Amino acid sequence: MVYRESPSTIERREPEGDVLLRVDASGRAGAPGARGHDGSDGSGAGEDGSPGGHASAPSPGENGGFVAVTMRPEGATMARVEGTRRFADGRAHAVRELVTIGDYGFVDVVARGGAGGHGGDGGRGGDGATGRRGSDATRYSSGGDGGRGGDGGRGGRASSGANGGAGGRVVVQVDDADTHLVMLIRTGVDGGIGGQPGRHGAGGSGGAGGRGGSSHTWTETEHYTDSQGKPQTRTSFHSSPGGSRGPSGASGASGSGPLYAGHDGADGAFAIEVLTATGPKQYPGRYELMLSGITLRTDDRDGVFEPGELVRVDGLRVRNVGAMPSPSSRAITLEVRDSKWCGALANEVLEIPRSVPAGAEIDVPGTLTFELRDHAPSDPADPLAEHERVLLRAHVVDVSRSFERFEPDAMAPPATMLVRFPIAASIVEGLVALAPGEVTRLRFAIRNQSKLALGAKSSSRRRVRARLALFESELADDAALLIDEHGQPVPMRGEGLVRELDLLEPGADWVFEGALGIRESAPSYRELRLRLTLEIGRLDMPDVLRVVQHRELRVRCVRTLAPDARMDWLLVAHHRTSREEIDAWEALATRHERRLAVWDLSREGHLELGSSVIERLGGGLVIVLGHPMSSAGREVRAAEMLSHATMSQLAEAGADVLLAGGTADLRALLAPAIVDRDVAPAGGEDALVERLASRVENEGALVETAELHEIGMFFESPREARLEARARALAERLATRFPQRRFTIVWELAPAPRGSWLLVHRYRLGRIRVLARPAARCGVAHVALSDHALADPRTIASNECATAIAVASGPDDQVDALVRAIEASDGARARVWSDAILVGLASEQLAVLRRTRSRAGLSRARMREALPRLVRLAHTPLVPDGREDAIAIVAELAAKLRFFADAQVRLWERIPGIAWARRAAMLDALTETLIDEMLDAQSSDELVRRALRDRTRELEKTLRQRWKDARATDLTARDRGAWSRAMVLAPVEREGVTTDDELLVADDGDLVEHAAWSARLRVAHASEQARTALVASAERERSELLLMVRTAELIGPRARVEVADVDEPVENESGSLLRANG
């Protein structure tokens, strides 16, 4: 029998890892089948390849042998292992080893079966030889065809895998007094794995046909005398054709025949033989103890497992799920293991009763005690409530080994406790944003969550105290006023409001209800930070207090929007917006010569700006801060409260929107309003397009419908694919005709007969609805900023934020801002606005080219209409008094745009006769004309105009050289159009800005089937309902907590404030729930 490993290799195996000693009598793996030899290739012309050889059969795995060892202790720290191991082939070796027990590791006693050998692969068939070559042509015969190629040889058969060897037999013998030693044993007597089959050999390739014989050509010369008697020569050319290539030989077949994996070997046997006074006893396995019962309790039995408290573990039960009794003369102890909350105490150990029979369950007498680790909260948080499983260790002392499966999953519930304190504080309820002079109701509750009464006058005598005071607050007592539950002002500095609860019954709540007001003189956007500290008497010293929880209320003093406030920018802030942020935004607005107003979302509770605010904004910019805020008890971002209705109102008024930070779905915000009104259908696509053309100048959303009809044979039926194709063609047509508008097209299959004639019938295919998104009169943009960066005044003052504002602004606002910057000689600011204008101009041009590069019926006049930004710029003077700095800015803008437009034209599109039909070429020519108009519009002085034109040409030449230099080192720069786009759009890409202009270029229109559109309507309706519910919750919270009394009314030598019960409100004339009494 052949095996993969030699006996010497097996005998030299050394213990490794957690193995103290390895006694191994495992069988050797069977040798694999030998691979069949490959067939030889054909040698003579057209000779067949020879077949591949068959694989030989593999050898089965060797059976495991026999191991018999005796274990006995050698002193307190050693164990002697003696015996023999005998292999299946008869080889035997004595075992005499002394093992150091230590704290970990095993004595491996194994007799596994060897793995079966894998089957061999069949040999590959030989390739057929090339056919003989055909005979060459002669003057008298044609060339012969080549001979047939030889056939490939058949592949050889593979062999199946061999069976694995059977596991052997292992016997471990110990004395009855030494059964603790079997905890060191780890055994393996499983059978060997069967071998995998080989793979049949592939057939050889057929030989190529022989080459045909070569053709033959010759000439014949004839000498003769012509009619004039002169000698002449006549030469004629002749040829015989060559032969054709012969047919190729057939490829050989692969080897065939059924193949099987070898069977796994049968498992062997393991036994522990215990020598007792009555004779040896054998067991198929060792003992295995498992926890089957546990009870956790505290001495005070208050139902709370409190940090720092002693916990008792009793009611312990253990089951022997092993195959033999546990040791009769050796101790097995039980103790608590350390964990996050459980601190084991020294000498807290129980002994499990000895000699527990297999399958028996016994009680463990005694109680274990451990201490819950202490907890000292430092930050505001919910009440401590953590589940902790008590982990136990069953330990065989004399061998220092534990049972790995002592704690089954079924014991998790009774062994798990909820770590918490007996008392807990609710959130401190109050409005988080108040304007100067406003007052909020202030509420919180203290709950006794134990089964015992608490307080100095209770049986436990454990004191309970709550303190409400300022903590690292930006606003102090002089800026706010705290009113207690008796209507009296309370200082917030130092200890602040202190309440000692003398008696709090089990499960009862103590509720505090007062008021908090912001004084009229308080500075805006500073924060009042109140911290509630909850304390309880210690377990061992009930009159000595310890902190168990902190809660916090942060109230921001915010601005209100004055009814007559004029503004250019409206900043949507909230209660987490700091004074430093507000100051930074105001500084930015001042730098750009804009007036900033603040809409505080936390105070207002919604983003429905209303017609009055939008009218006063006057087409300005709305900046929505995107870091999270708290509203109605949940974390939200301002963009979630921005409705389609508000976006539509802003668009109609020409206002711009910048979403700063957070996430924003601009496509959803710019989608056409969800409308469901009936519109008289047009009769086909042409009529629909003409209707849209008559209204496309309207800045609002457009809705048009059409019915599509078709004519076909009587057996033809309306097909959905046909309707979708026509809807797609309409989308392309609209995008080509109206490049500056966004369209959503909803198609619905709605077949209906419309008449017939003989075998032809006319039928309605379906309906199409076209919704036009708002025209680009205003700008919408999103700048990607982290919450941390958005709250950093340095970010607000950075070029990143200025760029975002500039690209978010509409075209008219951008040009006006550039004019102001040039007039103020602010070059950095002018550069920001110039870059933003260039981004818009480039996007405008890309929108014209986004669907097709052919003219597609777009006239020069209509193309001019599609470039409103450039047309406006072409008639705007930007160079006052011929100033050099202004000339540089305008020339750079003109040069970059001219280079960009020129770069979009492909080389072949400039060929005369083709250029007139190409949209990019026509756009380039129109752009150059408009740029010339722009340069001429800057001054009536010819010298200034010449300076502008010269500077523009120089800069354009510089840009061209930059591109050539980049092309030499960067492969991506070889595409001039792509390089120019990257150059122009660099400011927004560098600053992480996404604009509505980008979406117009990237968005070819939205094509939606009616069922999907209906689903979208449902989602939009659900989103709007969620937003409405959020707003309603915020308004309810404010109406419940805001008190209709001014802070000034609470101040006076005899002022007293009553806070009415919420369930039984006491209202005065103004309906307030707080009234002041003199």
From TrEMBL:
<dbReference type="Pfam" id="PF25560">
    <property type="entry name" value="DUF7932"/>
</dbReference>
<feature type="compositionally biased region" description="Basic and acidic residues">
    <location>
        <begin position="10"/>
        <end position="21"/>
    </location>
</feature>
<feature type="compositionally biased region" description="Low complexity">
    <location>
        <begin position="239"/>
        <end position="258"/>
    </location>
</feature>
<feature type="region of interest" description="Disordered">
    <location>
        <begin position="190"/>
        <end position="260"/>
    </location>
</feature>
<feature type="domain" description="DUF7932">
    <location>
        <begin position="294"/>
        <end position="408"/>
    </location>
</feature>
<feature type="compositionally biased region" description="Polar residues">
    <location>
        <begin position="226"/>
        <end position="238"/>
    </location>
</feature>
<feature type="compositionally biased region" description="Gly residues">
    <location>
        <begin position="190"/>
        <end position="213"/>
    </location>
</feature>
<feature type="compositionally biased region" description="Gly residues">
    <location>
        <begin position="41"/>
        <end position="52"/>
    </location>
</feature>
<dbReference type="InterPro" id="IPR057692">
    <property type="entry name" value="DUF7932"/>
</dbReference>
<protein>
    <submittedName>
        <fullName>PE-PGRS virulence associated protein</fullName>
    </submittedName>
</protein>
<feature type="compositionally biased region" description="Gly residues">
    <location>
        <begin position="116"/>
        <end position="131"/>
    </location>
</feature>
<feature type="region of interest" description="Disordered">
    <location>
        <begin position="116"/>
        <end position="169"/>
    </location>
</feature>
<feature type="region of interest" description="Disordered">
    <location>
        <begin position="1"/>
        <end position="68"/>
    </location>
</feature>
<feature type="compositionally biased region" description="Gly residues">
    <location>
        <begin position="143"/>
        <end position="168"/>
    </location>
</feature>
